[in-house]
Amino acid sequence: MAKLYFYYGAMGSSKTANALMAEYNYRERGQKALLAKSNIDTRDGANIMRSRIGLQKECILLSELCEMKDEDIKQYDAVIVDEIQFASRDQIDHLAYIVDNLDVPVLCYGLRSDFQLNLFEGSERLIAIADVIKEVKTVCWCGKKAITNARYNKNGIVREGSQVMLGANDEYIALCRKHFLEGNLYGDKEIKKEDEKE
């Protein structure tokens, strides 16, 4: 029986790499998995799913997936969606429709909360209706489990701004709750953004 999966984790926890490896595992077994990602994530091009470690594959956009005919989706053994936090409630409900009515498992990967510790719309809906919710773990600089996504600049942690701002290691860092609340980005380590290096 197909299920709706939500794999969430802080930034840098290899969510996209896990999504791409899941697609590879289906392919290796002679099955087909459809890759999709949020329309908002255009950092590597509209139709490329790319992980920080360099794995990448062509994909479609989530809006395109939601417009596909049922018979076309049923040709796949699974649907894998990255950057799911940016999905709308209606898009998440459509993914549930694929699971419940087409019997195709849907694996969703994304952040749970934003840089202010507020849930994203897509993540909130998945927490409410997903069959399986699993954490993809990563660690803070102190070694404890990282659960927050701190947005930062040369002045430290940024606490205000729009919920969506695409960035990578030069603008976000995964921290444990304690160090996020303290505003402690690195402890005693001296780590600088590329543009601050001499």
- Radius of gyration, in Å, reads 17 Å
Mean pLDDT: 87
How are helices and strands ordered from N to C?
EHEEEEHHEHEHEEEEH
CATH superfamily of the largest domain: P-loop containing nucleotide triphosphate hydrolases
Low-confidence stretches: 190-198
CATH architecture term of the largest domain: 3-Layer(aba) Sandwich
Coarse shape: elongated
Provide structural commentary.
The N and C termini lie far apart (56 Å). The chain has six helices and eleven strands. The chain is elongated and about 55 Å long. It is α/β, with parallel strands linked by helices and 198 residues long. The longest helix has 14 residues, at 15-28. Helix content is 27%, strand content 22%. The chain folds into two domains: 4-135, Rossmann fold (3-Layer(aba) Sandwich), CATH 3.40.50; 148-196, no CATH class.
Keywords, separated by commas or semicolons:
27% helix, single chain, 3-stranded antiparallel sheet, alpha/beta, 6 helices, 2 domains, 6-stranded parallel sheet, Rossmann fold, 198 residues, 11 strands
